[in-house]
Amino acid sequence: MSEKIAVLGAGSWGSILASVLDENGHDVRLWSYNPDQVEELNTKHTNSRYIKDFTYSPSLVAYSDLAQALTDVDAVLFVVPTKAIRSVAGQVATILAAKNLQPQIIHASKGIEQKTYKRLSQVLAEEIPAANRKAVSVISGPSHAEDVARKDITLVTAASESPDAAKYVQKLFMTSYFRVYTNSDVIGVEIGAALKNIIALGTGALNGLGYGDNAKAALMTRGLAEISRLGTSFGADPMTFIGLSGVGDIIVTGTSSNSRNWRAGDELGRGEKLDDVIDHMGMVIEGLATTKAAYELSQERGVSMPITKAIYQVIYEGKDIRQAISDLMQREGRSEF
Ligand SMILES: NC(=O)C1=CN([C@@H]2O[C@H](COP(=O)(O)OP(=O)(O)OC[C@H]3O[C@@H](n4cnc5c(N)ncnc54)[C@H](OP(=O)(O)O)[C@@H]3O)[C@@H](O)[C@H]2O)C=CC1
Ligand SMILES: O=C(CO)COP(=O)(O)O
Prior knowledge:
This protein is α/β, with parallel strands linked by helices. It has two domains: 4-184, NAD(P)-binding Rossmann-like Domain (Rossmann fold, 3-Layer(aba) Sandwich); 187-329, N-(1-d-carboxylethyl)-l-norvaline Dehydrogenase, domain 2 (Orthogonal Bundle), CATH 1.10.1040. The protein is 53% helix and 12% strand. It has helices at 12-23, 35-43, 66-69, 82-99, 120-127, 145-149, 163-173, 186-209, 213-233, 244-254, 260-269, 274-281, 286-301, 306-317, 321-329, and strands at 4-8, 27-31, 61-63, 75-78, 104-107, 136-140, 154-160, 178-183. An eight-stranded mixed sheet has the order 3-2-1-4-5-6-7-8, with helices on both faces. Strand 7 (154-160), helix 7 (163-173) and strand 8 (178-183) form a beta-alpha-beta unit. Helix 8 (186-209) runs parallel beside helix 10. It is globular and about 60 Å long. It starts with a strand and ends in an 8-residue tail after the last helix. The mean pLDDT is 98. 1,3-dihydroxyacetonephosphate is lined by residues 110, 142-144, 197, 200, 249, 252-253, 259-261, 286. The active site is at 196 (proton acceptor).
């Protein structure tokens, strides 16, 4: 099949997913709000700020005009940072209504909306009226853009309440090195995807402070336990958290310097100031905002999330990291499950 697909957001992940789709023979329109970036993508076929040493196929065309990118689309893939999802979806909705289109809606972003605590598929379904879309799906899993760029083996999951939509997304992306499973648990997939970034900040910080493998494994395991507690409180299937978008993504993000969240944590652990870390990263560090949303959500729902709370206190209340770790370790002993 060859579909017309608009990919919105030309950062590291959006541009590489666009490249996978282009390679699969789809008519891909990669949209960015930055005209200089569009110019670079269309003339040099590079995206140097976001992905180093990678050349895109000339068949992949970038657009700065959103309406043009959406012409006759069969599917729209959102890969902008979480904080931009609602505003971009609002613009998309207006254009789809004017063009009388009803594409599949997919997103590959990882976060929770601030203040509303909504998952991104909920935000998309709210902003794009049912008359102008088919189902909403999410594609997620352990997938650093840098690894996909060099065609390293990558497995992800496509989740949707509509089994047909999940299969559609699976078919769009599958290649010899990019394998896609389907999943009906949208809640579990989106919560796992968003909250693993908090844990990556934590394991990065442990690394920066000089802690070893035991400490990092402990943080990832107990981190997954609290993510699972929050997710199941919303009705997620506990099995999802031992799948690709749960333990898979915690491993890839919580152990790798390819992860911006891990790197940010590492730099904080080494004593750098948060503002400096954000400044020189130059790309989105989703875990920072997600820590706030998840902490507030855990308070609101009465779900125990001690690691998220500790990371929240370090980032938002200026608590000393070593003190936060010591306080976590001195909590009263309890049963593992
Ligand atoms: N990188 C990866 O390996 C993976 C990332 N993800 C997720 O994908 C999402 C995007 O991440 P990623 O591509 O890495 O992020 P990047 O920071 O690399 O790129 C984000 C892109 O979105 C643009 N952007 C920012 N705000 C807006 C806006 N309001 N309207 C339109 N475009 C905007 C940015 O432009 P500018 O920089 O000029 O602001 C940039 O081009 C995140 O949720 C991330 O968690 C998921 C899996 C893997
Ligand atoms: O989600 C990712 C890999 O699955 C990428 O993580 P970072 O946003 O921390 O780079």
